[in-house]
């Protein structure tokens, strides 16, 4: 599903391509505008990588870069992430993710499957939201937030996905096919394990799920060193975000 490369074997030329294939070649690679760190863009990186889509990134490092995007009218609600894709400048993380998932057949076969995918993704989004602001917290609040994050992962969220996989006996969360829900859950699992390495010790179904999804070719590539996956956010990332957004207010644990 990489952009610009589908169906061009032999003597085929862009003039012979139709529909989405022609659009992808004309549009080029998606371009992501965000900081050089995880934040709200990381799930978008995961989804593009899982779909086998190559993408470019422009990292925001100065206030001037951000102000230029504002002045050019590129940020509809004056916020990032922003993704240039298929001739659009998309904002709002959820809208971007929905578009990519649907475009690359990662969003179920029908309305019911899409509803299930949405439910599972919203669950993992809530869980990951607990750690999103973690780098910006005080040392004392970090301890509180970490405890809350791990407890909710292992007591509220992981039991749900464990039961889903056990009840239907399939490899994937929805429709027995690889979807956005699987990608998002693996991202969440790995985030939790970074904070609590034994988090899956009581969840055999999730252990098997993690092993299977991690070894899918596009995911395996994304998890390798040197990929566009971002490391745990550090103090440099925090300072860059604060400087660019001029956001120096205190952030509290939730």
Structure report:
By secondary structure, the protein is an alpha+beta fold. It is 53% helix and 6% strand. It has helices spanning 19-27, 42-50, 63-71, 93-103, 111-132, 139-168, 180-195, 204-214, 217-223, 235-245; strands spanning 31-34, 56-59, 82-85, 88-91. A four-stranded mixed sheet has the order 2-1-3-4, with helices on one face. Helix 2 links the parallel strand 1 and strand 2. Helix 2 (42-50) runs parallel beside helix 4 (93-103), helix 5 (111-132) packs parallel to helix 7 and helix 7 packs across helix 8. The longest helix is centred in the middle third of the chain and has 30 residues, at 139-168. The radius of gyration is 19 Å and the shape is globular.
């Amino acid at each position: 599903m990489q952009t610009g490369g589908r169906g061009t074997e032999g003597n085929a030329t862009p003039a012979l391509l139709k529909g989405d294939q022609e659009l992808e070649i004309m549009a080029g690679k998606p371009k992501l505008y965000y900081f050089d760190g995880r934040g709200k863009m990381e799930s978008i990186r995961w989804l593009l990588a899982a779909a086998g889509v190559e993408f470019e990134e422009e990292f925001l490092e100065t206030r001037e870069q951000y102000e230029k995007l504002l002045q050019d009218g590129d940020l509809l609600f004056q916020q990032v992430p922003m993704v240039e894709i298929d001739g659009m400048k998309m904002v709002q993380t959820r809208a971007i993710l929905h578009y990519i998932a649907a475009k690359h057949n990662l969003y179920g076969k029908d309305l019911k499957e899409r509803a299930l995918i949405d439910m599972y993704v919203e669950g993992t989004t809530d869980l990951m939201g607990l750690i999103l602001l973690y780098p910006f917290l005080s040392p004392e609040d970090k301890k509180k937030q970490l405890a809350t994050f791990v407890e909710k992962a292992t007591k509220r969220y992981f039991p749900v996905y464990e039961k889903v996989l056990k009840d239907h006996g399939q490899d994937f969360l929805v429709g027995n096919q690889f979807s956005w829900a699987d990608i998002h859950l693996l991202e969440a699992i790995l985030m939790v394990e970074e904070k609590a390495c034994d988090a899956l010790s009581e969840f055999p179904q999730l252990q098997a799920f993690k092993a299977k999804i991690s070894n899918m070719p596009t995911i395996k590539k994304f998890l390798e060193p040197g990929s566009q996956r971002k490391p745990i956010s550090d103090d440099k990332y925090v300072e860059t975000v604060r400087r660019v957004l001029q956001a120096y207010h205190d952030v509290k644990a939730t």
